[in-house]
Amino acid sequence: MFEAVIFDWDGTLADTRDVILASFHEALREITRLDVPDEFVERRIGVGAATTFREILTAKGVKFDDELIRQLVAVKVRVEIDRTGDVKLFPGARELLESLQGKVSMALASMNNRRVIDHMLNGLQVQEFFSEVLTGDEVTCSKPDPEIFLKSAHKLGIKPEKCVILEDSIFGVKAAKAGKMACVAVVQGAYSAKELAKEKPDLIINSLREKDALLKFILK
Question: pTM of this prediction?
Fold first, then answer.
């Protein structure tokens, strides 16, 4: 039996896709007058906004410095907070959290901004489920580096090998495996089951509604 479950947020517990895309597009238009295809952003959700903006500007051949990245991130954060009401938990998310409560420790590990995550957790009334919440503000390295997961395990006081990670992106699965943690990949984000399977998660599910399979794996 695992002692802790560490959840990703965007694309795993919460359907934030449309809000995140809108926030990136508005920030780019407002600050740089640039635009990029949805897919460019969507397939980078989970690595952190600053990293994604750097990749966008590099791809567009636009010179940038830390101040420009800071301005872009600030607009993105503002838009996400303003549109928190548009964010919904995925079907089965709350039921899974309720089923695990009291049986294992739970943490949230998101590369999103602290203000955004706190606002969304409060708005969706799920903050009570998590003993620890770590965000991109508190780590140096983005996923697929395992830093955020290892720090989460440390804060929980649980060895990495006793933790299981729930993720929807290849970056998250890579980070979990790099941290020598078990990983469940949820196929409801930008990545297909085939793409996720290449990263060798311990279990692949199509939705959080597959609660029985999840509980059997986590609590075995």
Answer: 0.94
